[in-house]
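Bug: token stream looks shifted between consecutive jobs. Job 1:
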Amino acid sequence: MVDGTSSTDDAPAASPLQSREATTDLTRRGFRAWSGPLRWMAGIAVLLALALVAGLVTAVVVVRRPWPQTSGEIELSGLEGEVEVVRDDAGIPQVYADSMHDLMMAQGFVHAQDRFFEMDVRRHATAGRLSELFGEDGLESDLVVRTLGWRQVAEQELTMLRPATRSALDAYAEGVNAWLAGRSTSEMALEYTLLGITGLDYTPEKWSAVDSIAWLKAMAWDLRGNLEEEIGRALTAAAVGTEASAELYPSYPFEKHAPIVEQGGLLGDVFDQDVEPSGSDLLRRPAPGGRRTVAALAGVRSVLSGVPALLGSGDGIGSNSWVVDGEHTATGAPILANDPHLGISLPGVWTQVGLHCRTVSTECPMDVAGFSFSGVPGVVIGHNADIAWGFTNLGPDVTDLYVERVSGDTWQSGRKELPLTTRDETIEVRDGDPVDITVRSTDHGPLLTDLVDLDEELDAVDLADDDGLVEQADDVARADTAAPGDGWDVGVSLAWTALQPHPTADALLALDMASDWESFRAALSDFAVPGQNVVYADREGHIGYQATGLVPIRRAGNDGRTPAAGWEPDTAWTGRFVPYDALPNVLDPESGIIATANQAVIDPRRYPPHLTDDWDQGYRSTRINELLDADDELSVAKMGAIQLDDWSAIGEALTPYLLEVDLPRGYYSDGQRLLRSWNYRQGPDSAAAAYFNVVWRQVLERTFADELPAALEPDGGDRWFTVVARILRRASSHWWDDVETDDVVEDRDDILREAMIAARDELTARQSPNADEWTWGALHELELRSATLGESGIGIVERLFNRGGWEVGGGGSLVDATGWDAREGYDVVTAPSMRMVVPMDDLDAATWINLTGVSGHAFHPHYTDQTDKWARGETLPWAFSEDAVQDAGEDVLTLTPGG
């Protein structure tokens, strides 16, 4: 359903389907839509070389031209009154105005000052229009986004918003457009200057309210739930069989790791924290099988990996948040902490801001500060004068893949053949011909397989017999008589709650102005996607928790764990969702502690509605609860120290077995010597942590790579903590045996010995023959890359925008969650995107830090100034009261009404 040709004469361009294969090795680096170096970027390298010859003065002027004016006075047409923007020494703006219109307009202006290029790229990405800026390199992402129809959903949501929310969005857009007015692209961003050199003739469109709403779809995509697990279960079962696959997707260990809410249940359609009910088990049904189904799912997995990291990876993402009441603090007042873990980028996803009505009233009710998205009005996470809140991903199962029977323009539902719904899309491609696509949908959702070359995927499945990809596929097909039969094409459609319009934007602004538990819960009732765990504290001493999000109620034939048979009527969603009042919530629990780290929300034995089976396994949450429960004199500083806790649960589980392995004395036992005194902490200077993590990666590869295809090999995250911890107790588990060695049956100690020997050799080559000179930080580096020109493939251009070399501690599924992917190496791929701690007795004593600075302009002093402190575990003071803000102010910009 794709039609497009290249405008080049010397060779035909790769089709969008052909280019997908070339991008799979970039799935964890920056802008994943790039299929290679941008050919037209070569001219930039020539220009830069000439600039160096001509002198640096011009270069400095070009670089500085887009930097914002942060002091003095600027007239803005449309303002109702005077607005003051006070920036501290980190460049963080605090905005003061007399009306909501002016406050939102000023925020739009300030966001555009600091980060308009990022905002512009985001709106192109969420509208499926990256190709207009970047040519065929953006096409793969555009195909997915257009198929899902994000922009159309955002346009529908705009019509559903409350008048106050719509007014705020329009005023914000006014501010962005006031900044754009009369400004050349060279005055907007260095990136536009470089793109212009390559021949891009481009003037940014005016900002609109829909541009802001569409970015919420990107965050929903990033935190979309268990889509990867659905595909992974099906493909793993095809590779190793259903029983073995179940071992690799363990159930949540409720007996070891407590859920967030340990009391209450449903009383009718309302969650009551004092009720003690019992739940029920779900029907489990195997996924559709067969060669064509395996090929279609593998193709969909590959297509989805083409969505750029800018829009979120949706894999391995977690967060920490917790709140304690006054019984656990030194001051007797609650303290709340939050550090969301997201993919790393430059600039980071958050930008800090304060938004203050000079006189708080019903006409101008906002007095809030925290972390915002550039491009979206208001504050997403933070505190106002009365309450504080923090988010972690609840991860409800809000996506389902359906294997469909498709024939021509129809699909099968029960005994009926129903027409596919269609819409046509045209993607404009820079330096190329437009690409026309027809998006086809069943009642479940759009067909993602229309973006897959199924014949190519079938060939790949046949070739993959050598590495076991479809070793069990025929068995699965025979067990599941519902596999698509002859005469039917295989399709895979996506049902996702984010494709159903809902006024989530109402919730964000209402949350900023909530003043107590009731108004806080009322605000979150409109928060549809992504589903979140939200912790709460207020100045009156209360603490609380609320689960949010649209969670579909499924029929009996679909448990959400694996792709469902779309032609079976009992697999469809009912069209109903778990009522908001039925979602788990708790106020002032007896323990005085609420910690959320993506663990299970509540034991399903007490709560029948199915939220998901794919929780984080609970290692971080258990560690956080232990640290909080051990201290009844908690302070801001102690809370910050907990956020930096680098104790390794898998280190504690695996190390005793490593110490029992016999190794040759001397060279190969040096690493083992380090482990004998290791305290399981993963600081950047730790030699033992360096050795352990290299061993861990080797263990994963040597245990599972012989039976799993490369795409399904272990990433080393929390699920693999549980899998390995369980088989460690079984020295002769079938997983230890290397199936590629025909005449040998390996056991646990064989694999551990091989892993330790290989780890010693690897560290010798990477760092030093002297084991005492090894450091975890030298392996575990943080590199921040611009999602666009920072992935150009032109070294001199990448060096303009990328920054790196921070040696950090922590690790995947630790409280200090600097995640790395064992399939790729040791570099940080996800990280705490910010950290904040808020004491409710003194809001001016709160602390915050961002992964990057507030500026999106390369070489600006606030481009990565916070990263240095972040990497050292430091924070910034967070002034909130007007006196404290003025005292901390370094620059003051006055915005005045203009003609």
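Job 2, same session, no restart:
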Amino acid sequence: MSKDQPQHGENGATRRDFLKLAGLLTAALLPACRRVEEYIVPYRTGPEWNIPGADISYATCMPHAQGTVPLLAVCQEGRPTRLHPNPEYPDHSGLDAITQATILDLYSPQRATAPTFHGRPADPAEFEGAFAAWSRNVRENGRIGFLFHQAQSPVREALIREIRQKNPNARFYAWEPLASHEEQALAEAIAPGTVQTCHLEQASRILTIGRDFLGLFPIGPNRAFSLGKTPEGEHYAHPQGQYAKLTKLYAAETDYTITGGIADDRYPLHPDETATLIHTLAASLHQLTGHPDLAPYGSEPLPGTPLHRWAHACMEDLHRHSGESLILLAPEAPASLHRVVLTLNVILQATESTLTFHRRPETPIPYGDLLRDLREKTIETLFILAPQDTFDTLPELHAALRDTPIESIRLAYYGNDRLSTHCTWTIPATHYLEEWGMEYDPSGRLCLRQPMILPLHDSASELEILSGLIGSKGKLITAGNAPNNLSPAYHRTRKTFNLLLGIPAYEQEPLWQQTLRQGYTSATAYPAIHTIPKPPAHAIPPGALKPGIALLRRPWSYRAYDGRYRRNLWLQEMPDPVSGMACGDAALLSPELAASLGGKTEGLQTLTAAIRKTHISCPALPYPGIPHNTVILPRHIDLPGSRLQTAASSLRLSPLPRRTEAIHPPTILRGSVEHSPHLLDAPPGTTGQPPTLNLADRTPDTREQWGMSIDLNICTGCNACLIACRAENNIPLVGKQDLIKGRDLQWIRIDRYLRHRPGASSPTLQSVPVACQQCEAAPCESVCPVNATVHTDDGLNAMVYPRCWGTRYCSANCPYKARKFNFFDYAKASEADTKYQRNPNVTVRSRGVMEKCSYCVQRIVQAKARHRSGLMQGTGERPSTELVLTEDMLRLPHGAVQTACQQACPQQAITFGNLLKLAKPSATYNAQSSPRASRLLDELGTRPRTAYLSRYSPPPNRD
């Protein structure tokens, strides 16, 4: 256009006007520019100490059958939003995925909200009259029974003693689907009330027989095991490492667990071979030591089957490391097998280092046989105070309640579960974040549970119901109707606390406040037992393989535990750490068995089985590492007679009619891998070369340059990081149908690989968490037409959401596929489930923007603010204008910032910190200086700031 031509059109519009109009039209058409409209009402009279957006953490604990779980509840603007591990707790080791996800249950719209009578809402006066009648019945020698879940609660025990004094006819029962026979064996071998403590930090050789101790059945802090699998030592202070001193883990198991997946040598154990394996271990140890307690096992030579060879080689290695060895057995194994394993540990000198025993105060509750008493009509009224729906785990109870004329009262968290339909009354249960309580942890420390919020519904806790039943007024008093909202459970907890610790009156308040602040007290730790366990009187015979295909029902799930968390939507959308399935479960069987049944050796199929007159059907997934002639059924499949194992009369595989689950099964890596301290296993997609990151060419901030390292040698793929990221960053739920279509919004993707190693009996499972790699030469930044993805001075690849139009150019140009496009307004769709849990410091994204990991930039900003505030407070009387700040003073010390995934990781496989070479380098810098460090697709020149420390496993023992 020449300078003589007019700058306006006929209507006088300028080019700038045209661009404004185009922008408005684009804003109307592109979904990324539509924002959620919501009116935010501020506090009418806010607490003077409250700072909007600032978080306050309180110590509390979650009840658990294996011992309470201490944790921190993070509260913002008067409501709990996230759960963190308690850093002051001596045995803390991150926080597992299920525990973190329980905060979503607090706000679940499916919770029971009011008492019901035969399924209909009960009138308040009607319920008060019924409760008064129950209270009179308790105090007047009525035939009443109480069903509890297993928990070491001294407050509950004190209330039960009071009930027994008032009513000698009262009966008490306990039910836990995942009950352990270990305590029975210890009681017979040592003394009643004996518990064992494992010291994994002192074990150089560990054999686990079916015990998932890195998963759902821990025996101590996972970080103790992780340190023995880290050749560079704590904080990666010695980058060259000590590979010869690494802990070696053996695993023999039927099901594939995350513990077996990370094992150095795993043996696929047929369910009928457990006794044979333990018998062989005892016979091998007798050959090596000639110990007289093992004489019954030394009469016959060992056969030459693969199982016997594997067991003998394993025992030789354990014996060579006597005093540093440890054998673990699945908690559900028979007590007779536990006694033999106990004897093996004693002979291997484990009781002098890796294994100690303690005595727990005996429970005063003589638990009875509930089903027998129901059949004999010993009780007329039954209070069911166990939180789980027992339909899957105790179907006989449902039949008894249906067929026996008995009044049953259920304390129910969800009012419409299957057990509640058989009960006369249901009372809404409080969430553990809404109640007072006190339990022992596995070591005997007394842990306090305090409410983070008043009950959201007309609900009651177990302690409140028991207190109300023995009260003279016969009224249920809860935190919702108590004076000053102070629940009777609070008074009961304080009274029991003072009695147990024997505190003088003048010390009670200070010690209570101190314990409440830190969440636990070590004054009640279980006393040690120094008695040598007695050997078993008779040798156990080796097991015999039964003909046919064994069907083994898994009683637990990584996404539902024993079934009580099956409605938690975070856990439902979380991929199973072994199979990769979400929103469903599948049976697992070996590829060889799948082929023999007429199916394919890979991919999801339909399994149909006939067991006498019962027919079952479920999805099935061929999986390497499952023993031959064995099918692992998912938890929700019911076998005849509620058994865990049976045999099928007919079994068939057929194509899946339609996809009903989202699945990302592990990738099977073919070929062999050499093993040497100098030839380490590099994760798929890495070059295996030392870091090549150059920070100088961008003239970055010389104070902090952020980076991350992930140690694949100790990562189990447990999904704790995934749930922590979801809770921290307001990642919305997408729903089952969109999940099946691949529209998962998780910011962390865990890739899983099954790797066959030469000489090993089973493939290893390698988990690789993949999020935004925060590339120094990020390919997403150069293609964004609106400059929505930018690089910050401290090295973060940031997202500016108001600019993002959702063109998805960045996603197409990302080689890691770590960016997720928000197809729909998932945040609005999942508002009922997640609105009150959301972190107010993180933007709630609306439809049509790219979502990705940000290295928890909000935590970095908060840490900087806290650090600078501390500097200002340390100036004393000097005015701030006279304060001279240097770069070293302003630089955040290592550990001042923890990303959500790093904080939650039970294995401590994630480190985050400054990549600059300082006088005192960070653990992240040390880790990225290790020969094991490599970067995903580094040959593309993207220069990621996240490094992976490759997995190293010593070769298996073979003749």
